[in-house]
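ARCHIVE CARD
SHELF: 3
SLOT: left
DATA:
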Amino acid sequence: MQLAVNIIVLASIYALIACGYVLIYRVSRVLNLAHGELMMLGAYLVLATASLFSDHPGIALGVAVLLSLLVGALVYVFLMRKMTGEMVLAAILTTVALGILIRGLVILIWSAQQQYPAQALGVANPSLMLVGGARISLWSAVLVLTTVFVYCALFGFLRFGRWGMRMRAAGQNPLLAAQRGINLHTVYAVAWSLSTLTGALAGILMALDSGITTSMPVIALKAFPAALVGGLDSLAGAMAGALIVAAAEVLLIYYVDPLLSDVVPFLVLLAMLVMRPWGLFGTREELDRV
């Protein structure tokens, strides 16, 4: 039972991060390779807000989440907007440079030492007993529930929301969408904001559970294969890919060797690229375009 709980928690982490990759790719066909650093920045923002609202952890967390939304919009407005219409490779390299910049700024401001936002906020992280003797920490349980809520909200937003439908239209045919009066820049800004928000939620909850270091982007790098395995233009694929990668990682760690944890996601990715390069739920036409 504990093994199943570990798989669910890890799959929730990967799924929450992977949906950020999917949101930007399905709208603009850009791979955001700074997603891990933006996730880390969201976690460090909790440290900043904790110093301002130390007696009100709920307010501190809420302000950090809102700041993450704002950061995503600002990244697009002041950086990625200038890449609109340029080669996709140029936009991807811009995100690489952005990630390096964010990591450097985080080290300069907060140092590279491990820090614990939960202590700064004065919140506990007790262990919860589940059926079958399995245990899960409070913030891990919150992360699982948050992942479920985020995916339900995103599915509803993209299916029924006004801006969600505009995002889908811009992703399918940006030229036609622009001709029908959809402001592509606003759509892209919304996509970057939501992507940064989902990454920041993952970073914040992981930081509250086990602390935060400047190596956190490595987790986002391991979540990237989950998005590719499921299909880069599919939210459902991100969930399925996250579950597959997490199950393979936990099982091989448990039955083979813990040192395989950083390798397993990419082994799963290589196997999927051989069998179905466009992913489980991805569309083959998109692969041909790329």
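SLOT: right
DATA:
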Amino acid sequence: MATLSDEQLRALRFLARHPGGCTEATLLKQGFTAVQLSPLVYAGLAKLRAVGRPKLFRVKITMAGQRAIAAGAD
């Protein structure tokens, strides 16, 4: 992923504050949509994990996402 938008950095920073990841409902409450988050997952900056029954999806920041935050803070 080339340059991150302000919204993508905001999403990564939000995920970084939640080490266990966030559910889609939590992310929606913060104004993030699947369309906004999917490029982060595709680029390896965040990961998607199915948990529980019924299946809930959690989005969690990766180490690459942590590095992207550090680079974006410059």
